[in-house]
Amino acid sequence: MSRRIMVVNPNTTRAMTDAVVAAAASVAAPGTELLGATPTKGVSSVESHVDEVWGAVGVLEEIRRGEELGVDGYVVACFGDTGVPAAREVATGPVVGMTEAALMTAALLAHRFSIVTMPRRTMEQSDRVLRTLGLDHRCSVRAVEVAVAEVEEGSTEFLELFADEARAAIADDDAEAIVLGCSGLTDLVAPLRHRLGVPVIDGVLAAVTMVEGLLAQGLTTSRANTFARPSRLEPKLEPKL
Asked: How many Å apart are CA 98 and CA 118, to the nearest integer?
């Protein structure tokens, strides 16, 4: 089955997009074509609420471009799922955020689990998705103080930092699986699994396989209410009354 999946990076760092798409290709099924998407305007990393707003605008622009290209489904590759609800209103095919994909995968593999994200100020984004999914009673959130830009060209130099935080989650939070809280951490999955002896989940890999599964079943976003098509795709600038 031939399908086109766009992997949308909400930030403007093309090197990170390329790395994420390369990682996603390792799990994509035969017949899946992956398209990387990087906004032309926005922020170089998403690490604050302001960054999220700009990142969401970039996501919408790339989704609209994907619609013109006839893309079948979308992955949003930013922990916190920047712009995902709005993207679902615009996209014809299914849209899966890496955070929700990782957490739903963890929920199938373990009773309790923990997110290890970065930097600390982004922990609220993880909390928000956990509350939305109703999984906050099963998952703790931890963080290491590393900026997203620092993993642009790989994250292996931070392996021990993440390993130490994950071990603390297993020991103190009773975590039985670990979710990595950034799209730039794929190269930590295998070494952390080896060190920790528990499932370690990368959200982008989980999201790609979920989109493939939804497409194989002929499923897409419901238009019944919440994600109905918006009445306007761009704000109409009107004079003050």
From this structure: 15
pLDDT digit string, tens, across residues 52-88 = 999 999 999 999 999 999 999 999 999 999 999 999 9
Which residue is listed with tokens 């976003």?
Answer: 221
Cis peptide before 119 (omega within 30 of 0): yes
Is the previous residue joined to 85 through a cis bond, with omega within 30 degrees of 0? no
Q: Is residue 63 part of a domain?
A: yes
Q: Where are the alpha helices (DSSP H) in 70-122?
A: 84-90, 98-109
Q: Two tokens at 148?
A: 């997203």
| Amino acid code (one letter) for 1 | M
Domain that holds residue 180: 99-202
At 184-212, the pLDDT tens digits run: 898 899 999 999 999 999 999 999 999 99
CATH code of the domain covering residue 16: 3.40.50.12500
User: How far is C-alpha 163 from the geometric centre of its chain's CA atoms?
Assistant: 21
The position carrying tokens 């014809």 is 92
How far apart are alpha carbons 228 and 30 in whole angstroms?
32
Lowest mean pLDDT among 5-14, 32-41, 47-56, 155-164: 155-164
The pLDDT mean for the chain works out to: 93
Report which of 110, 160, 161 is spatially closest to residue 140, judged by C-alpha positions.
110
| Residue the block writes with tokens 């699986």 | 177
Question: How many structural domains compose the chain?
Answer: 2
241 pLDDT exceeds 70? no
Which amino acid would we find at residue 123? M
